[in-house]
Amino acid sequence: MRDIAVTALYAVVVALLLRVFVLAAYEIPSHSMEETLLPGDYIIVSKLAFVFRDMQRGDIITFKYRDTVNSDRHELFVKRIVGLPGDTLLFTPDGIIVNGTPLLTPPEAKIPTSPLLPSMKSGARIVVGKDSVFVVGDNRRNSFDSRYWGGVSLEDITGTPLFIYWSHGPSTSNPLPHIRWERVFNGIH
To answer: Is 173 noted as a catalytic residue in this protein?
Structure first.
């Protein structure tokens, strides 16, 4: 009996250490990363990904979004990096140009302009700060992202999604909510 208790205690300690320092699980609530991530996707995030490698343009990250009205409130967001520290971004009707080179965008991405901020209209030029990255959602027409609130501080980045471990919601073949088996255990790129 004592062996079982000790084994259970070790299992709980290992699980807690993994949850606190290595992995996290989150649910996707919005359409901003469609088709890469859908509402109702449950993802596993690596908190150590950028300990072993540098961030790159095109990486998907999770980060704490700091509410400017209530500084104690933080939400977790998932977006794709399009600008690294020091990059110059130019917004055009055809997409985003990074340091003079057109950025390859996912096929489902829409025109990356913001109707809310005049500075982000087509032709706007942004220089990413030295301690931040510029992020956008893959569903460019339906994403609250850096085009609205600026760069994400490097210290607010919490990790990178690894894979979808569960998915529940409507799909193109079935408008009723159901388990989307074809998405379960898909890697996130």
So the answer is: no
Higher pLDDT, 68 or 180: 180
Interval 85-100: pLDDT, tens: 999 999 887 788 999 9
Question: How far apart (Å, rounded) are the C-alpha atoms in residues 110 and 43?
Answer: 24
Domains and CATH numbers, the chain: 24-82+132-183 (2.10.109.10)
Residue 130 CA neighbour count, 13 Å, CB half: 0
Q: Which tokens is 169 given? A: 């919601």
Sign of CA dihedral 28, 142, 169, 105: negative
Active site residue 146: no
**Total number of residues shown for the chain:** 189
The catalytic residue among 47, 79, 132, 146 is 79
Q: Of all helices (H) and strands (E), which one includes residue 149? A: helix 146-149
Closest residue by Cα to residue 31 from 109, 121, 125, 117: 109
Lowest mean pLDDT, pick from 3-17, 21-35, 102-116, 154-168: 102-116
Query: Pick from 172, 161, 179, 119: which is nearest to 28 by CA?
Result: 161
What are the pLDDT digits (tens) for 88-131? 999 887 788 999 999 877 655 555 555 444 445 567 889 999 99
